[in-house]
Amino acid sequence: DIIFFWVARMMMMGLHFMGEVPFRTVYIHALVRDEQGAKMSKSKGNIIDPLELMDSFGGDALRFTLTALAVPGRDVKLSESRVAGYRNFATKLWNAARYCQMNGALLDPAFDPGGCQHAINRWIVSKVVETGQAVEQALEAYRLHDVAAALYRFTWHAFCDWYIEFTKPVLTGADEAAAAETRAAMGWALGRLLHHLHPVMPFITEELWAHLCGEGESDMLLTRAWPQAEAGLIDRAVEAEVDWVIKLISEIRALRAEMNVPPAAKLDLSIKDGTPAALARVETYGELIRRLARLSGSAPLTGEVPQGAVQIVIDEATAVLPLADVIDIAQEQARLKKEIDRVQGDIARVDKKLGNEQFLAKAPPEVVEEQRERRAESEQARERLAAALDRLSGA
After folding, report:
1. In b/e form, how buried is each residue of 310-347, taking b as 16+ CB within 10 angstroms?
2. 276-288 as b/e, with b when 16 or more CB fall inside 10 Å?
3. Long-range own/partner contacts, residues 391-394 (CB < 8 A, 24 or more apart)
4. Are 282 and 274 contacting, i.e. CB atoms less than 8 angstroms apart?
5. Quick count: other Cβ atoms within 10 Å of Cβ 68?
6. Between β-strands 309-314 and 317-322, what pairing exists: parallel, antiparallel or unpaired?
7. What is the C-alpha to C-alpha distance for residues 111 and 97, in angstroms, rounded to an integer?
8. Alpha carbon separation from 319 to 15, 45, 271, 300, 345 (Å, rounded)
9. N or C: which end of the chain has fewer CB within 10 A?
10. What is the reported pTM?
């Protein structure tokens, strides 16, 4: 209620003492409430002390949490668990930077991101530029939650989960030219990432930047010019290629988890009805696919699908994985049916509550919302289990 008067006072004081308008844009964020959505009050005892949160999880984790939750038109429901989650994100970033440092990936002023020859490096350069564009557009529109979402998605998934894994065989391989390019590309990508993260997480990014630059660079991120997102570095073809490989590996990993395939068991991958582009990708990235999906081999399927094999459709190809030799298919079908029945029972119990008018009238809104979220999660679990059972039914 007092925001208008504060803005008006500052505007009038600026005009009176400075002779000019002190600012032309006012950003008003939503109320920060407790995790139940209640307004903080000393009498209620639900005050969240930001100093205590920073002592426990760090200032960067709290800043990122508030940025990620700053959705227009929606109050911020703050809780320790959310801040702890983004503390884990900061730890992930730190460990990724340590990996880069241990492998000699430093910031190379002579590195040309447009001159990369290795497909994995062209892919990360393209993803970095795309992320930079998304961050800039979100900042200009004051959509701070979109800034946090873009940086989180790139850091956790593209950079940490996939690019770092993709670089391991290159950095330990015999091709020194490819390893040198990868170290330079990794240092460049990490530098851009730290720069884009800096407005939200200034402390950890400055620390990691100092290590990334080495002894030859003394400028802090705070004083450096904002990096320009060069649209010419975006390579849609290599993105489509590597993203397809990532999707294939992810689907195989998900299948292994769904079917209780032992971690040590290596499956033999066959590609059915694959387009020339899909077969070329499996051939080009065969070593990475086999290592990350724990496969013994990969090749086009010749003949009929073998008995006891499951199939996964990946865009323009079908992955065929024989499971009869590594799991008991009948036993696994029985387990999946039992799990489906259990999840269906959970859904029925929640539906009974949500269909009770007295429960909806008397229960606090957060309890009702919790039941709806629980039902949605159970529904997703049932769909995953049913899909796994369908795959086994055709095996």
Report:
1. bbbebeebbbbbbbeebbebeebeebbeebbeebeebb
2. eebbebbeebbeb
3. 391/255, 391/259, 391/310, 391/311, 391/312, 392/259, 392/310, 392/323, 392/329, 392/332, 392/333, 392/336, 393/333, 394/310, 394/311
4. yes
5. 22
6. antiparallel
7. 18
8. 69, 56, 5, 9, 33
9. N
10. 0.83
248 close to 314: Cβ distance less than 8 angstroms: yes
CA nearest to 96, candidates 254, 214, 225, 211: 211
For the stretch 176-235, pLDDT in tens is: 999 999 999 999 999 999 999 999 999 999 999 999 987 656 688 999 999 988 889 999
Using N-to-C axis directions, what is the helix angle for 176-197 and 164-171, rounded to 10°?
150
Sequence length of the chain is 395
pLDDT of residue 394: 58
Pairing of strands 76-77, 295-300: unpaired
Interatomic CA distance for residues 121 and 184, integer angstroms: 9
Rg for the chain (alpha carbons), in Å? Answer: 26
Residues 78/49, Cβ–Cβ less than 8 Å? no
Give tens-digit pLDDT for 111-150.
999 999 999 999 999 999 999 999 999 999 999 999 999 9
- Whether the per-residue pLDDT at 321 is higher than 80: the answer is yes
What are residue 317's DSSP bridge partners?
314
CA dihedral 127, 129, 130, 135 (to 10 degrees): 120
In this structure, are residues 108 and 190 in contact, taking their beta carbons and an 8 Å threshold?
Answer: no
- pLDDT digit string, tens, across residues 332-389: 778 888 888 998 999 999 999 899 888 888 888 878 888 898 899 899 888 878 877 7
- List alpha helices for the chain, DSSP H: 3-17, 50-57, 59-68, 80-102, 119-140, 144-153, 164-171, 176-197, 202-213, 236-258, 276-284, 286-293, 329-354, 357-362, 365-393
Mean pLDDT on 94-123: 94
